[in-house]
């Protein structure tokens, strides 16, 4: 991926989201496109119009941290967007951020033990690595979402599952939000690791095979999930809602642990307990065949 071009496209996308009135700019009937004009953003950021135009058009390869901070403030970027801007410009923020950890393909024995412990607490849990690769998961997560362990190695990926597996559309209650967030996570990863050939190949495959991915990718949104709620239409236990926490694993791992939980004494908790019982029961050959064709099954 060409980071200079990506930087310009990201700036253009963010500029288009700003309401000129909110930025103190006079209303004008002549505006043909939404958002701020280039000269207005340059004025707010305290840079020349010519310099900003070259930056947005990919004709300038340098941008100081001070200029990036000014642009981020003028564009009202949130923390995630701010980090993405600096990643694309290959600069460090004036206030240092945590170093980006290196990729890893495996989790430690301690994390595997933690995943098993969370199974006993009726908490689905899994670890995502770079490119949204599913590095590890516990039994309940595989029963709820999909049996990633049974998939070919190149398919053990959240983005691949969300955009290319029809079962995902039926499984997630709000598939559109899940899909948009997944594309935004990949966009964030692309800013941090522009030279990753596997990431480039994944984005290329998704863009070719999924029109929905192409649309979400074109939005140039970036996102890092830390907590939230998610609904499921599970083929075995029905409707349930979970809350999740995303925790960065310590060390040079570039991995995030996602832990799901439910409200105590809720129908969702009952559903997870039932799913835990079902997922550990021996399956007959006939039930294995049927289950393997359903989303969120463990075989």
Structure description:
There is one protein chain. The chain is of the alpha+beta class and 299 residues long. It has 2 domains: 3-89, 434 Repressor (Amino-terminal Domain) (Orthogonal Bundle); 109-291, Beta-Lactamase. Helix content is 48%, strand content 11%. It has 14 helices and 5 strands.
In short:
Pfam families: HTH_31 (PF13560), MLTR_LBD (PF17765). GO terms for molecular function: DNA binding. This protein is α+β, with helices and mostly antiparallel strands.
Features:
single chain, 299 residues, alpha+beta, 434 Repressor (Amino-terminal Domain), Beta-Lactamase, 2 domains, five-stranded antiparallel β-sheet, 14 helices, 5 strands, disordered C terminus
CATH architecture of the largest domain: 2-Layer Sandwich
H-E order = HHHHHHEEHHHHHHEEEHH
- Which spans of ≥5 residues are poorly predicted at pLDDT below 50? 96-104, 281-299
Largest sheet: 5 strands, antiparallel
